[in-house]
Design a protein that fits this description.
Length: 264
C-alpha cells in the first residue's frame, strides 16, 4: 500500500491518494496503548492533518486486534499520583486529537476494541468494523471507570440507563449489536481497511472545507443554546457561500456533472 514510513515501528503512516492511513503497530501487545504509542499516533494525526492532499484519515491496528486498551504493564509502572495524572492526560489527548482534528477520521476496527481501544474508536468520526469485531467495556473488570472520553461519547449514542448497564456489567458488544445501536457505521465482511476506504469515498469527493465545519458543529452542538447554534450556522454559511467550492457546486449542478471540489 504505497510508501510506508515507520516511526520506531510503533506507528505506520501511509498516504494513498487522498486518504491518510495511521496503523498502530504493536501486534504482539494487541496494540495496547503505551505512552510511546499514544504519542506517536498523536504526532501522526497532526502530520496528516497538515497535509493538504489528505481529505480523510483511517486509523487501524496491525495484527489480531484494533486495540486491546491501555497497556497494563505501563500503567503498573506508574509510581505516584503525579505520574498517573500525567499518563491519563497524555492518553486523553489522543481522544481529543481525534475529535478536534479538522479532517474526518474513520476507525477501522477488527478483533477487539477493548477498554481504551473502544474509547478511541468512539472518538473517531465514523467506525467501520469487521463482522467478527468485539467492543468491550472492560473497565469494571479491573475496578475502573471508562476514560479517554468514553462515557460522554457512549451516552451521546445510547440512553444513560443503557450506558450505565453496559459499563457496570463489562458488556462486550458484537458488531451487529453495535450497528443496531448506531455506534458503528458499516460492517465489513472482507478487509475492514478496504471497506473503510470505500466508506471514505463520499468524504474524498466532498467539499473538505464544508466537512470541516460539519464536524465542528455536530461535535459541539450539545454545548450550544439554540440561538447560539443558529448564529454559528449563519456565520459559517455566510463564509461558505463565498468559497470556490460553493461556486463549483452550483456550476456542476447547472451543468449536470459531478462537482470537483478543491477545498478553497
Amino acid at each position: 500500500m504505497g510508501n510506508l514510513v515507520e516511526m520506531e515501528e510503533l506507528v505506520k503512516i501511509e498516504v494513498q491518494g487522498e486518504i491518510g492511513h495511521i496503523i498502530m503497530n504493536r501486534p504482539k501487545k494487541l496494540n495496547a496503548l503505551s505512552k510511546e504509542l499514544v504519542e506517536q499516533v498523536i504526532q501522526s494525526l497532526d502530520q496528516l492533518s497538515q497535509n493538504d492532499a489528505v481529505k480523510a484519515i483511517i486509523l487501524s491496528g496491525n495484527g489480531n486486534a484494533f486495540c486491546a486498551g491501555g497497556d497494563i504493564e505501563s500503567m503498573n509502572s506508574l509510581s505516584d499520583a503525579n505520574e498517573i495524572v500525567k499518563w491519563i492526560d497524555i492518553a486523553s489527548g489522543l481522544s481529543k486529537m481525534l475529535m478536534n482534528a479538522e479532517k474526518y477520521v474513520i476507525a477501522a476496527v477488527h478483533g477487539y476494541a477493548a477498554g481504551a481501544g473502544f474509547s478511541i474508536a468512539l472518538a473517531a468520526d465514523f467506525i467501520v468494523a469487521d463482522e467478527q469485531a468485539k467492543f468491550a467495556l472492560s473497565f469494571t473488570n479491573i475496578g475502573l471507570i471508562p476514560d479517554l472520553g468514553l462515557i460522554k461519547s457512549l451516552t451521546e449514542r445510547v440512553s444513560p440507563s443503557i450506558a450505565k448497564e453496559w459499563i457496570s456489567s463489562g458488556k462486550v458488544l458484537t458488531s451487529k449489536e453495535a450497528h443496531a445501536h448506531g455506534i458503528i457505521n458499516r460492517i465489513s465482511t472482507g478487509s475492514v481497511v478496504e471497506e473503510a476506504v470505500r466508506f471514505a469515498e463520499f468524504i474524498v469527493k466532498g467539499p473538505s472545507i464544508s466537512n470541516k465545519y460539519v464536524k465542528y458543529l455536530v461535535n459541539h452542538v450539545g454545548e450550544l443554546h439554540q440561538e447560539t447554534a443558529f448564529a454559528q450556522e449563519n456565520m459559517i454559511q455566510a463564509m461558505l457561500l463565498q468559497t470556490q467550492d460553493h461556486k463549483e457546486g452550483i456550476a456542476a449542478f447547472l451543468e449536470k456533472r459531478e462537482a470537483r471540489f478543491t477545498g478553497k
